[in-house]
């Protein structure tokens, strides 16, 4: 155990140093050089392979089942380039002109009237998959509506978690730690009842907190928390999609979804509607979906599937780990920040 702990500590320290260097150095590079560097890095990661890349390929095969092997190879390459573009932009975003970012988003934004309607006289809950640059969506939300509240899972090591929180707070986000505690739930409920916007990433929750849905023809579990919050407050769920364009970003805001009650049946039905909307958006631009962990139950071990089948949804849960980047290599949880292997 001591050896495992030591290796974990070294990995965590390495991750902290890598991300700290990224924040400091990438901002100094000319844009063209940064783009070339991160694209080359993405291509190298794909050539090296590893568990994260293998899982990404399996996931994308579900999204694009008619692709040839060569087409799937290219889709995996483009997806990793998209993922590292997220990180390149994350490292540079604090020094970017946020007003210009918001103006650029507004040129491609689709469906703002849906979120405006959901927020009319009450709060709303935007739900997103791990696609595109969700931090850009948060910047747009803060600039447009004045505030945005979300939740992040605690990362290891703690200094790296604090850096991520400080990064998003500097962008104007209100960040709550995902500790399952009463304070987190009370804050989310309060913000919604104050008429504010809550944003949650909700396309994966392989735990007792999730509810089963069909997704690209197979069964998985997704976060039930957004639908439960909506039922408790009367707020509407607004599915959203974030995508990259050649020189910017595109955001789509879909028609709101209402949740009749907190019953399992109503929560499951609403979550399935969210999953269907996610699937349509992901299928339209699969390279921007950054899911490098097991998602479908059929990809889990028999032991883990058996454990999940004995679990029942936790009515106090919100989401597994929204608004953090997914781990690209080791499927132990979204909160890990180790680089892909």
Number of structural units classed as domains = 1
What is the C-alpha radius of gyration, as a whole number of Å?
19 Å
Largest sheet strand order: 4-1-7-8
What is the general shape? globular
Strand composition percent: 5-15%
Model regions low in confidence, pLDDT < 50 over at least 5 residues? 319-341
Number of beta-strand segments: 8
Major sheet summary line: 4 strands, mixed
What assembly state would you assign to the polypeptide chains in this entry? Answer: single chain
Residue-averaged pLDDT, rounded?
86
Order of helices and strands: HHHHHHEHEHEHEEEHEEHH
The end-to-end distance, rounded to whole angstroms, is 23 Å
Structural class by sheet pairing and helices:
alpha/beta
Keywords: Acyltransferase, Cell inner membrane, Cell membrane, Membrane, Transferase
Pfam family, one: Lip_A_acyltrans
Protein name: Lauroyl/myristoyl acyltransferase
EC number: 2.3.1.-
List keywords for this structure.
about 350 residues; alpha/beta; 12 helices; 8 strands
Task: Describe it.
- Helix content is 51%, strand content 13%.
- The chain is α/β, with parallel strands linked by helices.
- The protein has one domain (2-310).
- It has a 4-stranded mixed beta sheet, sandwiched between helices. The protein has a two-stranded parallel ribbon with strand order 2-3. It has a two-stranded antiparallel ribbon with strand order 5-6.
- Strand 5 and strand 6 form a beta hairpin.
- The two termini are 23 Å apart.
- Residues 319-341 have low confidence and may be disordered.
